[in-house]
Amino acid sequence: MARIHEEACTALVVASNDDARQGAVCKALHRLGWDTGQGPVPPETLYEADPNVLLVLVPPDQTRDQELIRLLDRFPLMPGLVLFPCGATTWDVSLINRCNDFVGWPCSDKELRYRLDRVSMKVGGAAGASYLDPGDELVNLNIVGVSEPLRRAVRHIHKLSRCDAPVLVNGETGTGKELAARGIHYNSSRRDGPFVAVNCGALPDHLSENELFGHERGAYTDAAGQQAGMVAEAVGGTLFLDEIQALTPHVQATLLRFLEDGSYRPLGASRSHTADVRVIAACNADLAALAGEGRFRSDLLYRLDVLSLNLPPLRERRDDVAVLAEHFLRLFRIKYEQPDKYLAAGTIPTLQRYRWPGNIRELENRLHRAFVLTEQLAITPADVLGDLASEPPRPRSMIDANFSGSFQFSGSFQQEKAAAVAEFERRYLQWVYTEADGNVSAAARQAGKERRALGKLLKKHGIGWP
Predict the structure, then answer these.
(1) Which segments constitute the Sigma-54 factor interaction domain (predicted)?
(2) Topology of domain 148-310, per CATH?
(3) CATH T-level fold of 318-390
(4) HEC secondary structure over the chain
(5) Is 11-123 CATH 3.40.50.1820?
(6) What is the model's pLDDT at position 108?
(7) What's the pLDDT tens digit per position in 256-298?
């Protein structure tokens, strides 16, 4: 088993009743090298304890156990693993929401080791690393990093958690906007309520209102029964709307009304409903610019942007690249049971020089691919970045790269201007398509254009089309 610290970690097994299964769990932990202190303990004796990990053993009858829930509320920042009885048909969501992972018990030692290593990521890291020390403000939000730009954002997250107003999270794709929204929710007074995440960009235009606000039976042809929307699911908690700019104008108007007084009307309903929900929205485009172009309602922007959080891109967090790389490698070592793979000398400086247009998500995916495909133990810069590892730094502007040097003209001003614009368009589209690894949606976000419009331009220039 991969050790988290040089000394043994303490894993306290707790249950609300005297269950013989507690002893079996403790024996399994001992086999895996974990210290269980004095063995199974009842919840009421834990309030002065300081364990590394809690293992919560759920009663066989699957009743909602208030004592266990109060226990987890007592340790809101501690890694926890819920052990449900195997064969159970219903699992208590309120317990799952308060822990990091869950598994059916009994389970194999291999499965238990894997789950423990996953949840205990919050209490350790690579040898000598202090960025995941217990009590660190970043650990409390499941955020990994050491840079000052990240810590400023984290301090702001804690401030936003103290109130109940709408929040607009701004950041490029892959910067962790949903993770920040979860941090706001789980550090707020709504932590006991649900956190419902919706990717507005994935909602079909004709179904987005239905998905958000629900419908009554007979609202339309296929509405055979009543369906509650995401807003109803989030009552008492937080509704996170990612890619808010993708909502249609009609749904934007409906959402505006909801933000004004908390009321909404499901499709086909004869009366309005009310819901106590905090809304956190996220956008990877400039909403103010979209509002200025008439592509987003300015009054909705004002309602959403009561409080704002700006997440820095990874290129402004160079110090975090090494920390994140080691963090992801440790996860992959556990997942694929290959503990000996490592980053070769010189890899980290190369990764730090790269601009990471896809931010943390791109770093994770490239490391994942390199870890799986690399045959040798040492992962080199070329394994992670391919040909990009040897490329010089990109120019700050496409104009610097493509329009420097001498020009030869042979036509009128309008003709030469049209040719230059066409050439710029073709090169820019090729660049942004390549940066997004052929993902049209990601390319559209980076270009600040609607996906459909960008797709037409790509087709026009034969980029990505047969």
Answers:
(1) 143-372
(2) Rossmann fold (3.40.50)
(3) Helicase, Ruva Protein; domain 3 (1.10.8)
(4) CCCCCCCCCEEEEECCCCCCHHHHHHHHHHHCCCECCCCCECHHHCCCCCCCEEEEECCCCCCCCHHHHHHHHHCCCCCEEEEEECCCCCCCHHHHCCCCEEEEECCCHHHHHHHHHHHHHHHCCCCCCCCCCCCCCCHHHCCCCCCHHHHHHHHHHHHHCCCCCCEEEECCCCCCHHHHHHHHHHCCCCCCCCEEEEEHHHCCCCCHHHHHHCECCCCCCCCCCCECCHHHHCCCCEEEEECHHHCCHHHHHHHHHHHHHCEECCECCCCCEECCCEEEEEECCCHHHHHHCCCCCHHHHHHHCCEEEECCCHHHCHHHHHHHHHHHHHHHHHHHCCCCCEECCCHHHHHHHCCCCCHHHHHHHHHHHHHHHCCCCEECHHHHHHHHHHCCCCCCCHHHHHCCCCCCCCCCHHHHHHHHHHHHHHHHHHHHHHHCCCCHHHHHHHHCCCHHHHHHHHHHCCCCCC
(5) no
(6) 79
(7) 999 998 888 887 666 788 899 999 999 988 888 889 889 899 9
